[in-house]
């Protein structure tokens, strides 16, 4: 369903599957998976390594959840769920090891783990006629781009969040 290469060692990658498992794999090994992470109860739509704290990664799923993982532990660290809807996409901020964005069909959310692990710090609803499908933090500006089912891309200026800090998780 999805995959992501490790940001520092591109020999390693994660693969999210339809059965809810995530596999850590190696390009130099064509045999067994290196690790299996079990935590989702539905298809895994996205896996993404944290670019600033490279032992951490997130996954999102049709089971309405986002899970934070550590590379060395096959047990989830935290599970986030703010809405009863499939989580279609997630992305770490490139400016803070604690911040990520997520989209489900009806809304986009920004989470800051320094502020809360229970609720997103910001949430915006989609237009009634569209469903959110993808999210991306812009690299050189404080913007969040959100794609929807009508082929449109919304650009949100991200301001007044807690001061960004590149500290590790």
Overview features:
single chain, 169 residues, mainly beta, 4-stranded antiparallel beta sheet, 15 strands, disordered C terminus
Structure description:
The protein has strands spanning 2-5, 12-16, 21-26, 35-38, 44-49, 56-61, 66-70, 78-80, 87-92, 99-104, 107-112, 122-125, 132-137, 143-148, 153-157. The two termini are 27 Å apart. The chain is 0% helix and 46% strand. Strands 1-2-3-4 form a 4-stranded antiparallel beta sheet, with no helix packed on it. The chain has a 4-stranded antiparallel beta sheet with strand order 5-6-7-8, with no helix packed on it. A 4-stranded antiparallel beta sheet has the order 9-10-11-12, with no helix packed on it. It has no helices and 15 strands. The protein is an all-beta fold and 169 residues long. The relative contact order is 0.13.
The tally of beta strands, per DSSP, is 15
Largest β-sheet summary: 4 strands, antiparallel
Percent strand equals over 45%
Order of helices and strands: EEEEEEEEEEEEEEE
Helix percentage range: under 10%
Distance between the termini: 27 Å
How would you classify the helix and strand content by structural class?
mainly beta
Q: For the largest sheet, list the strands in their spatial order.
A: 1-2-3-4
Q: Please count the helical segments.
A: 0
Shape: globular
Q: Taking all residues together, what is the mean pLDDT?
A: 89
Low-confidence residue ranges: 164-169
The radius of gyration over CA amounts to 15 Å
GO cellular component, one term: dynein axonemal particle
InterPro entries: Dynein_IC (IPR050687), WD40/YVTN_repeat-like_dom_sf (IPR015943), WD40_repeat_dom_sf (IPR036322), WD40_rpt (IPR001680)
GO molecular function, one term: dynein heavy chain binding
Protein name: Dynein axonemal intermediate chain 4
């Amino acid at each position: 369903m999805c995959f992501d290469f490790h940001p520092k060692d591109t020999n390693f990658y994660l693969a999210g599957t339809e059965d809810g498992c995530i596999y850590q794999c190696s390009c130099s090994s064509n045999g067994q998976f290196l690790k299996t992470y079990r935590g989702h109860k539905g298809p895994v739509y996205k896996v993404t390594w944290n670019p600033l704290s490279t032992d951490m990664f997130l996954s999102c799923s049709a089971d309405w959840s986002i899970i934070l993982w550590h590379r060395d532990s096959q047990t989830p660290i935290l599970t986030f769920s703010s809405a009863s809807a499939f989580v279609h996409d997630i992305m770490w901020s490139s400016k803070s090891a604690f911040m990520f964005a997520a989209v489900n069909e009806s809304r986009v959310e920004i989470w800051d783990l320094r502020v809360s692990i229970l609720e997103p710090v910001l949430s915006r609803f989609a237009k009634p006629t569209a469903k959110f499908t993808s999210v991306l933090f812009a690299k050189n500006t404080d913007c969040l781009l959100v794609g929807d089912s009508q082929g449109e891309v919304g650009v949100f200026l991200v301001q007044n969040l807690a001061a960004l800090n590149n500290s590790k998780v």
